[in-house]
Amino acid sequence: xxxxxxSDPQRxxxxxxxxxxxxxxxxxxxxxxxxxxxxxxxxxxxxxxxxLVSRLDEDSAGEKLRGRQMIHRTATMGNIGFILQIPSDDxxxxxxxxxxxxxxxxxEKDELARCAQEHQxxxxxxxxxxxxxxxxxxxxxxxxxxxxxxxxxIVGIYVAQSLANYLAGDTSLPxxxxxxxxxxxxxxxxxxxxxxxxxxxxxxxxxxVPRTFLQEVYxxxxxxxxxxxxxx
Length: 232
Fold this sequence. Notes:
Blueprint: E1 16-23, H1 30-42, E2 47-56, H2 58-65, E3 71-73, E4 80-85, E5 92-95, H3 109-118, E6 122-123, H4 126-131, E7 133-134, E8 137-138, E9 144-147, E10 153-160, H5 163-168, H6 175-188, E11 193-197, H7 211-225
């Protein structure tokens, strides 16, 4: 269900479905932290959380998910992280077990293992995970709990575009993302891409307000408050 629909960053462009894992403590000890993350994902006795993100036009959504609408859900936990390819759905313990599609999993490894065992087999479909709503609004995050596997592969690095960069039309990639890629490529012995995840427009829950107006507000605030105040 999940493993069969995931996209390859090397060849899939604007229409994609990625399984992503966010990175939070890169600055503390970058190489050691990243190597520990790689080891975690290959350890069959441990668990970690991921999110499903996508940007699909109507035709692609119909082909991949049997959906009937364009899907754009790129909000992530962490501005930089891994794009993963899993060997099969057998490594998925749970996916969106709560009514609103966010597990709220703990970060401590023993607690996460208990959470995975408690919700084992409670797995929503990819279409549900990418279109689930709360209070008539598109919910920002979904969550899956995965068990480590030596066959799980890191196939790319993602960068989540910030609201500030989206409004400014800035699609540049931060230096930190390429540094992460270089460490991982050296560790696993193959090259990979850094992919920009376009900002999820639906997180601005005022659809009647055009982007041009938001850009004007952003420009004026930047002028009043200074550029450093509104950095991504």
